[in-house]
Amino acid sequence: MRKLTAGLFHSVDGVVEAPYKFQFDSFDDELGAELGKTMAATDTVLLGRVGYTEWAGYWPTAQQDGEFAEFINTVPKFVASHTLTAPLGWQNSTLIEGDLESFVRDLKQQPGGDIAVMSSISLVRQLLFAGLLDSLALITHPVVAGEGRKLFEPGDPTTRLVLQNSVRTSKGNIVATYGKL
């Protein structure tokens, strides 16, 4: 069975929304290496509508991050949305038809590498609480963002996780990867 992973950039105060506002000076070689491992293991990406719309408007012509641009532009992307319509304009992008959770269960049964949820807080939440997410990496930057959406909200169900791995980088980033108990 394929593994469903997610990774979110995270501030010390728990903000995961719009990480480009607070992470710009935190990247270092070690963090790049960790992200490279994720890309190497991933052959399919899941995106939500907002992430898809933002990324489809940027990555097809992005020049400054050639390795990630090449990866994200060529990898098969499945998009969860109730408002977008097919066909999608970004190369290798397919709109998910029907129930998301059933689609993901079926996708995990197919041969291939890891499936990564990218750029979607709502999708990560839904798949985590549905028990479909196999690992969640929180990439904590040493900064207090002050405002923005957090991954977890008051009233969320208690969900026990187990720490699978943790890495500290030279700029003080912590990559903590959690899995299901």
Task: Give a nutshell description of this structure.
A hairpin with a 5-residue loop joins strand 7 and strand 8. The chain has helices at about 30-40, 50-55, 65-75, 100-110, 120-130, and strands spanning about 5-10, 40-50, 75-80, 95, 115, 135-140, 160-170, 175-180.
Explain how this protein is built.
It is a single chain. The chain has 181 residues and is an alpha/beta fold. The chain has one domain (4-180): 3-Layer(aba) Sandwich (Dihydrofolate Reductase, subunit A), CATH 3.40.430. It has five helices and eight strands, in the order E-H-E-H-H-E-E-H-E-H-E-E-E. It has an eight-stranded mixed beta sheet. The protein is globular. The mean pLDDT is 94.
Average residue pLDDT = 94
Unreliable residue runs: none
Helix fraction, binned, reads 25-40%
Termini separation comes to: 17 Å
Supply the number of helical segments: 5
Query: Largest sheet, described in full?
Result: 8 strands, mixed
Number of domains: 1
Number of extended strands: 8
Strand ordering within the main sheet: 4-3-2-5-1-6-8-7
CATH class: Alpha Beta
Query: Helix/strand-derived class?
Result: alpha/beta
What CATH calls the topology is Dihydrofolate Reductase, subunit A
Q: Which superfamily, in CATH terms, is the homologous superfamily?
A: Dihydrofolate Reductase, subunit A
Please give the CATH architecture: 3-Layer(aba) Sandwich
Helix-strand pattern: EHEHHEEHEHEEE
Radius of gyration: 16 Å
Estimated share of beta-strand residues: 25-35%
Query: What shape does the CA trace take?
Result: globular
